[in-house]
Amino acid sequence: MEVLEKIEKLRKEKGWSINYLAMESGLTQSTLNNLYTRKTEPKISTLRAICGAFGITLSEFFKEEENEDELIRRVKTLSQENKTALLQILKCLR
Length: 94
Description:
By secondary structure, this protein is mainly α. It has helices at residues 3-14, 18-25, 29-38, 44-54, 58-62, 66-76, 80-92.
């Protein structure tokens, strides 16, 4: 997923307008509009401000969602005995 697509996804998940994201991030609305209009990737400082508004780090922003999909695939291949053991381990981590 590209950077602008990810920003858009996070913005829509929160139900935020571009104007609200600008306000929360401390950026101008024209800065955000220019990103979308020009289809350019934001500067790291701009992306850091956007991530701050979403309450995530840059590392979390770039984390691949595939890790969750891979985990689900691996759990599905476990035997019932191993699934039960994994569930017990996870309950201990709470």
